[in-house]
Amino acid sequence: MSSLLLRGVRVVPLDSPADDGAASPIDILIRDGVIAGLGPGLAPDGAVVADGDGRWLIPGLWDAHVHLGQWALAARRLDLSRTSSPEDVLALVAQAAREGRPVIGTGQRAGTWSRPVTVAELDSVCAGAPVVLINADFHHAWLNTAALDALGLPRRDGTVAEAEWFAAYPKVATFEGPVTAGDYRKVLRDAAAKGIVGLVDFEFGAPWADWAQRWHEGCDLLRVRWSPYADQLGAVRAAGLRGGACLPGADHRLTVGSLKIISDGSLGTRTAWCHEPYADTGGFGAPNLPADALVALQAEARATGLPVATHAIGDRALEAALAAYTVTGARGSIEHAQLTTDAATAQMSRLGLTASVQPAHLLDDRPTMDRVWADRAERCFALRSLLDHGIRLALGSDAPVAPLDPWLAIATAAHRGHPGDEPWHPGQAITVAEAITASVDGRRIAVGQPGDVALVDANPLTCDPARLTAPGIALTAVAGRVVHSEIVLGR
């Protein structure tokens, strides 16, 4: 295992952020995957040496919620993120369809459109080849008839949503080809260049054996927690896997995460399950599975030795998820926790659950929340309230729903808007130090801690949150192995 000596670095004081500019440079020695020494003048003892030149060191960053296969495919797909209407999308599809090949697009935000869409209008611009247009929230897709037929879905007039869409999605690979090890290597290198050392992978339909194989194909750059869905529990039990265990054929950096349960939908699809109706549709959203099924899944995960990651965006879904955790005694997280209540927040704290939140969704959802959840907007992305209740916060991206960029998440959590925007419900903002702390998986720069670090050019605690962008990442190391470097390494 690699040994690494970082000379002349200053540690970002996450636990005492008031001491933000006077840290004295020290050396950090990482040996056998853990931090073995802190102090001036440490001997290299054969380690790789990097001169920090007074740069700032933080624990390596984590993205606590990624669909890595989809993120890896994003560069291949038709980018619809800049469209603002069905007509914009149809124009781009018509142009792409001229090549006569299937069209897989992603990034449109149908929740902001003024009308629903139809299969017929998509057929009108491309009837011969399959077209699959995946909404930015991933909870529904707009398909033409050729795609419906090819995926074995019943013909219909509207979109394919929620459970039906999640079941169909793995078959989309027949149109565009599988994600390759090369695709994964690229996104992992890009992540390392942002200071990321670990990811929680919630990819749909991805067997654990796929990760174990690609691990030996150059995809062993970062720590990865592979997280199964309900249909994979049998394979998990057959392999004797438990939460935190290494995947067979890999090492301690590739481990088993949580059982992922999607208990409701999303704001953009108007399927997040709420107590009060949406202002535009009058609907309340809906659960994706009944209460007894949610309890049964959580109980099965607990019996299997897995923590549980329960997706709950609407406040009614959140309360149902918490009721299930109370009954089963399962432990884990609420994924998204986008719309909360005071009672639910207090209960989440009592249960010791983690709130896994993706702050960058605020940037995209803000206009929709102001329009259809105006009566409850102050309860959205309530990060300050979560922390004040003693709840552990874990930040992520939900890539490809938002870019795999921890600095975007950190900046948004602290500023609650784009640079130049007035903060949105600023009482729910947290500090940059708190946001970074929520992005390092509980790690610190201390002897005995994992040797997962990122060396940055500037102290992020001294930056204005409204203007915070990714500082220059000079070096990223995972278990002492340098996986990204902009500086010269020596002996």
Describe the protein's architecture and organization.
With 491 residues, this protein is of the alpha/beta class. The protein contains 16 helices and 23 strands. The protein folds into four domains: 1-60 and 445-491, Urease, subunit C, domain 1; 72-176, Diaminopimelate Epimerase, Chain A, domain 1 (Roll); 181-238, no CATH class; 258-442, Alpha-Beta Barrel (TIM Barrel), CATH 3.20.20. The strands form four sheets. Strands 1, 2, 3, 4, 5, 20, 21, 22 and 23 form a nine-stranded mixed beta sheet that branches. Helix 10 (291-304) packs across helix 11 (315-328) and helix 11 (315-328) packs parallel to helix 12. The longest helix has 14 residues, at 291-304. The model has no long low-confidence stretch (mean pLDDT 95).
What fraction of residues sit in β-strands? 15-25%
Q: CATH superfamily assignment of the largest domain? A: Metal-dependent hydrolases
Describe the sheet with the most strands.
Answer: 9 strands, mixed
Question: How does CATH name the architecture of the largest domain?
Answer: Alpha-Beta Barrel
What is the C-level CATH assignment of the largest domain? Answer: Alpha Beta
Unreliable residue stretches: none
Roughly how much helix do the residues carry, as a percent range?
25-40%
Radius of gyration: 23 Å
Total domain modules = 4
Helix-strand category: alpha/beta
Total beta strand runs:
23
